[in-house]
Write a structure and sequence with these properties.
It is a single chain. The protein is an all-alpha fold and 219 residues long. The protein has one domain. α3 runs antiparallel to α7 and α7 packs antiparallel against α8. The longest helix has 33 residues.
Length: 219
């Protein structure tokens, strides 16, 4: 129900026009003055991306050599966490590859040449810009880790909620940073969060089904 309600809110956001309203708060026909801001571009973009990849490698290594709170998880759950995160990243990358939505800084409203369309309504020929800007790849550097909620709830509800809050907060901060730079609309980040959540949910469901099937076979 929560997932369905979040989807309904996202669809409402898409139809509200708030994307352009928020974009105009940080940009104009002269472009986005914070596009090359050191904090947003070097720290929250380049630095956070490298940190996210390092965290993903750490999760993969931790399948065999866990440290910290990961020790509370069984090995198969640590594997699920790594697979869930990788699946979320790949899902976002694949969606970006086939989407024709251009970034805000490519739009005519902000000094570019592209026309604005909802990311679900861009013509097959594109909007006149570079495209491949939806969903928000950078925000997935945080949101891709939401699968930790499903694995940690097996051992601790509090740990699961804490992990989820951290992943959502990280993704939101990165999404807002890109919004201020003109690299994405806010809806791009919100959709990324929902997509990563659904992928993690599906991985967890499949993981549990395989585990039950294996148990039945042994019985």
């Amino acid at each position: 129900m929560l997932t369905a309600c979040a989807l309904a809110l996202l669809i409402s956001w898409d139809n509200s026009g708030l994307d352009m309203v928020l974009a105009h708060l940080s940009g104009s026909t002269a472009g986005f003055p914070l596009r090359n801001n050191w904090l947003l571009a070097s720290v929250l973009h380049e630095g956070a991306r490298k940190l996210s990849w390092a965290a993903l490698v750490f999760l993969c290594v931790a399948i065999w050599w866990p440290v910290g709170p990961l020790r509370r998880l069984a090995q198969n759950r640590r594997a699920e966490l790594a697979v869930s995160t990788i699946a979320a990243v790949l899902g976002i990358v694949l969606l970006k590859a086939v989407n024709h939505t251009s970034c805000p800084w490519d739009l005519a409203d902000f000094g570019g040449a592209a026309r604005y369309f909802s990311h679900w309504a861009v013509p097959a020929g594109g909007d006149g810009g570079g495209g491949r800007c939806f969903p928000a790849g950078h925000a997935s550097s945080g949101f891709a880790f939401v699968g930790g909620y499903f694995v940690f709830r097996q051992v601790s509800s509090a740990a699961a909620r804490t992990w989820l809050a951290c992943a959502l907060l990280a993704g939101l901060v990165l999404g807002i940073g890109q919004q201020l730079r003109g690299a994405h609309f806010m809806s791009h980040a919100l959709w990324t969060a929902w997509i990563c959540w659904v992928i993690a949910w599906a991985v967890d469901g499949g993981w549990n089904a395989i585990k039950r099937f294996s148990a039945l076979k042994r019985a």
